[in-house]
Amino acid sequence: MVISEAENFGFVQNSLHLKFYLKYHIMSVHIAAKKGEIAKTVLQPGDPLRAKYIADNFLNEVKLVSQTRNIFYYTGIYKGKEISVGASGMGIPSIGIYSFELFTEYEVDTIIRIGTCGAYTSDLKLFDLLNVENSASESTYAKHAWGIEGELIKNQGNAFGLINETAKALSLDIQPTNIHTSDIFYRKEEGIPAIATKYNCSAVEMEAFALFANAQYLGKNAATILTVSDIIPTREQISADQREKALKPMIELALETALQF
Fold first, then answer.
1. Using one digit for the tens of pLDDT, what is the confidence trace for 233-246?
2. What is the pTM of this model?
3. Residue 49 falls within a domain, yes or no?
4. What is the CATH number of the domain that holds 166?
5. What is the count of structural domains for the chain?
């Protein structure tokens, strides 16, 4: 469809013109919301059904603004403020796409990722809340996408600090920490990966590094709040039945923090 329209405009013969057409005539390849339907602050779980749960249980005047590829995005009102919630999918490539399009095509200012993680240490307990200060990763995403060198990327903007302040006001215990953002869920060798030891990462997840890289390049706010769902050394984990209740404090903390933007 895009090529056909480009041919009608005579752009196909010149690739620069085609790039111009794609840039200025299409909002997003992966999100179907119209301009103005996404709020300036977005909560971003990985799971589309978790996004639906948040919209159904915490927001008022909710509108489903995108369901392309069954990745749901909703916009609604929380305590008088417009907030959007939508999924990132799993892994660095997926959140890299969705967060970039939110920041650029929809002019989102702040994304707060809310997700689960596996603890590398038994010093952490199931249901603990973590506020990610830095993400360490073996991924080359930041280098090849934006020329950002290094294995460690910090949270971006003031969201991290606001999360700590809001948690204190809500009497919620939250631990600032470094985490390992991994491309790998299953691996041959057991034990803590070298990069996690190098940067004193207490837990592992799969998305924060790309979110922080995009935000750094674009000058946006980005934070990640995690709930410990697994203790890797002891093989403890939150049951499916426990997850809904377990994630409620994290969701409420993210929403209350979003009120301050």
1. 999 999 877 877 77
2. 0.89
3. yes
4. 3.40.50.1580
5. 1
